[in-house]
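[Automated response] Your request has been received and processed.

Submitted sequence:
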Amino acid sequence: MALNMISFIDDSLLHIFGIRLTPQARKVTNALVLGALALVALLGLWWVYSQFAGQKEKDAQKTLASCIELYDQAVGASETSVPWSTVETACKRAHDEYANSNLAPYFLAYQAEALVKQNKTDEAITVMTQMMKSMSKNSPLYYVYATKLALIEIDSNDSTAHAQGLKRLEELAADPKNQQRDEALYYVGLYFWHLNDRVKAKEAWQTLAELSPNAQEASSPWMQLVSERLAVLA
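Generated structure:
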């Protein structure tokens, strides 16, 4: 059908301008016209997709805002508060609907938090692990959530998850690329402080103090939390 149309257009135009093409030249012309039509079709499809994707992202933003609102209502103890199970279900449903959205990881983050509030630690770990796999390390919140996952794992009654959490936390504390390294160091020290292992607690907190020797207390809120304890350990 397309070739017949092209041939008809070619014949009409060539007749108008009094041009005669050899069979070989006509093949080349037809190929060029087909290529141009294909390009136009691809551009049209791209435009339709970009419009659809853009609308999908807008819808995801509105839905995430609704999830955050539910979360805030669950946090507040008032007549308008909602149960954490409602937050969990809403965030899971939203993630399923917008799994391909750029905001998909954040639906999982709120779902995991709702699970933690219900003491469903193992389920929260599963959801948080899924979230971390879908989140880029370039995200400014990547290391914040990585630390949170480590802490949830440490709180688990499962010994394997607990060990994995401590390992993850220590790796985050040793990672120079981690912009939240001071937070990880704080919790590593706190972990050993509660175990009465003062040597390891001091080692972690001393590293925290050395991250920014000049006005560290002003730059890191985590250093402010350990300054007195570090003085005791000196």
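Summary generated for your ticket: The chain has a mean pLDDT of 81. The CA atoms of residues 6 and 30 lie 7 Å apart.
If you did not submit this request, please reply to this message.
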